[in-house]
Amino acid sequence: MSELLYKEEVFKLVGHCMEVHRELGKGQDEVLYKDAFVVELNRAQIPFACERKYEAVYKGVVLPHHYYADFVVWDKILFEAKAVERLTDAHVKQVLNYLAVSKLELGLLVNFGAESLEWKRVIRSQKQGPGELPKDFRL
Fold it and tell me: Would you state the CATH architecture of domain 7-123?
């Protein structure tokens, strides 16, 4: 069995997310969770970029609107935060689209809005089209 991609890094990020969720609880606006997550990343001296912009291209033409990933951490993990009752396939597809345009392999989808913190590792497969869920995917 192969090792999980960026296992230790994801473990650290989820730990920081748990701390944010423990402190703020559920029901806050998404932006507050993101702000608190920035505090955690800064305190841990973890390098990251907020609102990383990616171009959307259609038939070779760069479109006027862009994708904005919530965070890119360590220049290798795309982090998407939500504050909803539960994660859906649409949230996973969003991360898959961001992974496709960013060319990153791993996305971490985190929901701060549920009773307990929810998180999903999302892996970009070379065989998947943008926004296409893996055949064996289940939430």
Answer: 3-Layer(aba) Sandwich (3.40)
